[in-house]
Structures are given as C-alpha cells and as structure tokens.
Amino acid sequence: MSSSPILPEGEEAVISIRGLRNAFGEQVIHENLDFDVRRGEIIGVVGGSGTGKSVLMRSIIGLQTPSEGTIDVLGENMVGRDEDEAKNIRRRWGILFQAGALFSTLTVAENVEVPLREYFRMSPKLMDEIASYKIAMAGLPANAGPKFPSELSGGMIKRAGLARALALDPELLFLDEPTAGLDPIAAQNFDELILSLRSKLDLTVFLITHDLDTLYAICDRVAVLADRRVIAAGTIEQLLALDHPWIQEYFNGPRGRAAAAA
Amino acid sequence: MASGATIDGGETSDSNCYRCSGALTILRAATTEREIEAMPDGMTIDLTDVERMDTVGAWLIYRAKRDRGAKIVGASDKITGLLEQVAEADQPVKVIPDRRGGLTGLIEEVGDAVVETGQTLVGLVGFLGATLIGFYNVLKRPAKRFRLNAVVQRFDLVGVRALGIIGLMSFLIGVVIGQQGAVQLEAFGAEIYTINLIGRITTRELGTLMTAIMVAGRSGSAFAAQLGTMKLTEEIDAMRTIGVSPVEALVVPRMMAAIVMMPLLSFYAMILAIAGGGIFVWIALDIPPLTFIQRLREVVPLTDLWVGLIKAPVFGFIIGLVGCFQGMQVEGDAEQVGRRTTAAVVQAIFLVIVLDAVFAVFFSGIGWI
What we know:
Order of helices and strands of chain B: EEHEHEHHHHHHHHHHH
Distance between the termini of chain A: 25 Å
Helix content of chain B: over 70%
Mean pLDDT of chain B: 88
Largest interface: A-B, 36 and 32 residues
Oligomer: heterodimer
Shape of chain A: globular
Largest sheet of chain B: 4 strands, mixed
Strand order of the largest sheet of chain A: 6-7-8-3-9-10
Helix content of chain A: 25-40%
Distance between the termini of chain B: 92 Å
Radius of gyration of chain A: 18 Å
Strand order of the largest sheet of chain B: 1-2-3-4
Number of helices of chain A: 10
Low-confidence stretches of chain B: 1-13
Number of strands of chain A: 10
Strand content of chain A: 15-25%
Shape of chain B: elongated
Largest sheet of chain A: 6 strands, mixed
Number of helices of chain B: 13
Mean pLDDT of chain A: 85
C-alpha cells in the first residue's frame, strides 16, 4: 500500500476528486487536488490553518462550487448538479458542522426530525421515536430532547448535531472538527461513539480534525493537506515514512508523540 | 418479491409470521410500520432473508418485540448487534417542552407578558442611568474618553447616508400636502392658504416626525442588530474584560449621533418638504417661487421652526436609547436579534409619537401657537 491520495484501480471509492481547483479571487486554495476516500473507512483530514480543509469539505458537499475539477460522491458527479438532482445524494450523507449549526428556533428533537420530514412521509409517532433513539445514540440524555439549542452546552450541541447528521442513517458522514471544544473525556466518548456507529452502520466517515488523539484512536487513514493539494493519504506509519517537513513536525512534535504513546 | 417485505398469510400454520427480505431501511419505514401494525400480537418476525438493515429498520423490529411480544428469528450477528444498539438507545424523549393549555395557560401567558413588560421598563430606566453615567464620564474627561473616530463614523452612517432617502421622502410629502391643501382650499377660494399649510405643518410637525420615523427605521434598528450580534459573539463581554466600557464605546457614540443628527436631518427635511410644496403650487396654482417665499416669511412664525427643532434631539435620544437598550438585551440565539430589532423600531416610533403629543400640548400651553 502506498501513501498516494489516489486509490489503486479496482478499489471502490466513495468520494473521488480529480484536478480540483478552488480560488477566492487571487487567493488559490486548492490547485490540481486529487483525493479518494475508500468505502467503510474513517479518514482523517489534517493540515495547517488556512490550507482549506473546510473548503475541501464544502466542495464535496456542494456548498462551494470549484472553479475546476470533478468530484464524484457515491458514484455521482457533484459539480454543476442542480438542487433537485443533488437531493438524492444529499439524503445519503450526514454532516456535522463545526459549530453544530442547529436550527435555533427548533428543539433538539425537532432538529433531528427536520431531515425525516423533508424526505419521508411517516407517522408522527414513528418520527418522534426515531428522533428519540437517535438522540440517545448520540449520547444525549432524554431531557435534552425538548431543549432549544441556546440552552445547550458546547458538547451537547455537537452531540445534537451528530444526532441530526445521523437522522437518515447515512452511508457517508462528514464531521468538521467534532472534538474541538470538548473536554478530553467527552472527546474520547465521541471517538468511541464514532467507532461503534461505523462498525454497526457501515459508515464511511470523512473527519476534519486537529485532535491527534482522535487521529490515532479511530482513523484508518489520514490525508494531509498542504501546498494546495492532498500531498499524501495513508496510515500514520506510512505518513511518517515520508520525508515531508510538515508531516514530520506534526506527528513528531511533543503533542504528536504523546498521542502516539497513548 | 426481491426487495419487499411480505406478509406470509397463505398457510394457517404460518399466519402470524412476518417475513422480511431485501433491504429493511428507512426507505421502507412507513410501509413496514403499517404491515407490522396489521399483524397479531405475539407474531414471529423472520429476518433470514434481510440483506441490509439500518437503525430505522432495527427500531421497527425492536418496537414490535417490545410492545407486541414479537419473536425474532433468523437474525444475523450484524442485525442482532443493530437490534441491541437500538435497544440500548431506547429512552422516551419529549419533542417539545411542556406547555399549559386552556385557561391556566392563558393566565400564565398574560402573567409572563406583564412581568416582562415590567422588567423591560425597569431595565430601560437602568439603562438610561448607565447611559447618563457614560455621557458624564465622557464629558468629564473628553480628551481620554471621547472616541472621535467612532462618533464621526456614526454621524456618517446615521446622518450623511440618510440624506438621500429622507430628502426624497420629505420632498414627496411636501408635494402631497400641497396637493391636498390646494384641492380642499380651492373649494373656498382660499388656495393661497396652501402656503400657510405647507409652511407650518412641515416645520412644526411633519419634518421632525417623519425624520424620526425614518431614523428609527434606519438607525434604531441598526443599533439593535449590531449590538445584539456583538452580544451573541461575546464581543461585548470581551470589551468588558479588557476594561473598555461598552456603554462608553458603543452606546454613547450611537446616542450622540442620533441626538446631533436628528435636528440637522429634521431641518433638511423641512426645507425639502417646503421645496416640494413650493414647486407643486408653482405648477398647480401658478404661484411663483418668489411670492411663495415672501408669503412663507409672513405666515410662518419663527417659533414654528423652534417647535420642530427642539423636539428633534429628544426624539433622537429616544431612538438611540431604545435601539441600544434592545440590542444589549439580546441573549441566546439569532432569533432574539430579530425580535429585539423589531421591538426597538416599534417602541421607538411609539414613544416618539407619544412624546410628540406631549410636546404639542406643551407648546400650545406656552403660547407658541
């Protein structure tokens, strides 16, 4: 196995990006970026601040139209699709935004029901039950259901966001810094939660994180964003074998070593 | 059926067996729910042929087992795991907070509204005090505390940038007054009094009042929305911890802008309204501009101008105070910003009109008729 960001022929890629270019005015974020995500894996995306991790995620989920390149998600081309066509794919993924992005006028349980209402016609009772067990699965107590987002702590907002992301039993889960701002115990619980959900629900997880412990604990592969592209993707051992200064500094710094020892 | 659930009711021995096959996922949730509903209690659910299951499917099966005493057979290890997982997550969760209905609910709502109104009034008085202290601190040590840049920027936003819309609005109001006056007074052959009407009503009342309404809509709302957003993003807390008083840094410049700009904008509005009326009577009644101005000087006493201009800074003060107060009251979420902004505009306009009535009585009382 190599640490190339492109999978070898014959392997099934859930996300496949070729020749991606993103630019804001003069500032080029991505140039000629190639990247594949394998089905069923948890892939961590790392990179220094401003290397475009969130922009990459936004491009994949269609919130940012790239100036060049192709993006295939679950076998469908995402660039230039109109809203209606893209809906079928949107149903198959769940997204946890960095700050939760819960709808502030709805309670937690109603937030979880939003995607259910949007895509399916089912009895209100079943919908409430689905929201209930999703909330429990995300590790929230029962009394969090009727609360409004403004009444929740940071960790609870993340969990509520996760419950909403899981509402439709997605095949693909995007997590933007899920453990940022959580205490170490909550972060560890979150890691375990992601692992157990992955094994039970056959999830593919695209995870943006700065949390080295998370990278070591749950990621099958790690993709490194630098120099406007994904310079490498592989297990941490494979990445360490590369002679790139940023990667060496990232994993061999004091924090990296502490996380590796844990 | 390749990917559908089937109720196997053909054989009598098998009539309470629900046989699932294919993919039992959220896509089929509604149908599956109905089909399980139709089965007798104590049914057997056969999952041997299920190829794929998600948590929604697992939940439906688990629920049948929990509530209807269903027996589950033929579950693979993976499906058993899923069933265990949803069983673990089984906790009744309320979707919306409890609310009292009926008469008690109504009384509770009324009570809440009364308490809230009282709290708002007390809060407004407190805020007025804090603002006055802020003004006092700034005026006491202007060299150190006066924020020239902030004040000039507010002057620009509240005053200069409002010139276009307030000018246009006033001009049109002048035209409307002229037109209405001309039509009504012509019936008595008294169309010359249209000039009295235009001159006096714009200076005494409409110039200031319409400007106040426009400033409340433009700037009072902006104050509330800006301060409210800053409150949400903790900018105001950050200011406090650094030792900068938010009242001095944010509220005082905005209030100053509203107080200083209101009389200037009002005067400008009066002139534009008179110009609009003047042009209308020139066209419609053939009264040339020179005659119009001559007559204005004869019939509009200077006290009319003072009536309008004295009210203006007071209105500005009210608009600034209510706007900043509502902004600082924001807590919690983005919806609050919207609600508080609306409240700022509504309350400011309401207070302005109430005060305008008080002023009208007062000025008549002192003989400025």
